[in-house]
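Hi Q.,

Before the meeting this afternoon, I wanted you to have the zinc ion prediction in hand. No need to reply - just skim if you have a minute. The sequence and ligand are here:
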Amino acid sequence: MAARRRRRRRRRINPGFLGLCAALVLLAVGIGLWWVNRPLPGEDIAVPDYVERDYLLINEFSRPGTPLEEINAVVIHYVGNPGTTAKANRDYFNTLALGREGTYASSHFVVGLEGEVIQCIPLTEVAYASKHRNGDTVAIEVCHPDDTGEFSPETYARVVELTAWLCREFRLDPAEDVIRHYDVTGKECPRWYVANPEDWETLKLDVAAEVEKLASVENS
Ligand SMILES: [Zn+2]
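Predicted structure with the ligand bound:
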């Protein structure tokens, strides 16, 4: 008697329970579809006029084509090869595709000695620049005239401008989200701004001021 009542009760609960299951499955499918099709943060972003796009060929060594799912910081590097141009560094990344050196390296942007900027990798794909932060950061490699790694005034101004634009575009805080390669791996990169932490603080303040300027220009 008790068993039959239990069975009857279970039978009565079943339709609602099945409905709930169906709703949950539909919800899961919906979330799954949204997740698969969600836009990447760097999708449909128009870069500033001073950026020349010269993308690397897709290859396993410098442009793996892996989606950049999140953008949580900008990582600043120095090329470590004094006097070389943005183009030379971009071309170096491209020749890594041949695999002769077995080196994995690249960067989204390279800022040159005269402030020219080459974009090597779309903002929707990862670059090989910052180890475990490749998956959620944008990389900027910076050219420098000599071994100290200090940026020229033209280069410095452009790094500030480009970094500020990225901060504004991806809602990043210059004080927290603009970092050095050194902050990720302890590598002496960018050399001058590792050796001179006060100059690094100044650079971030300059980026913050530039973000304000971009905002006021846009709002005027
Ligand atoms: Zn670096």
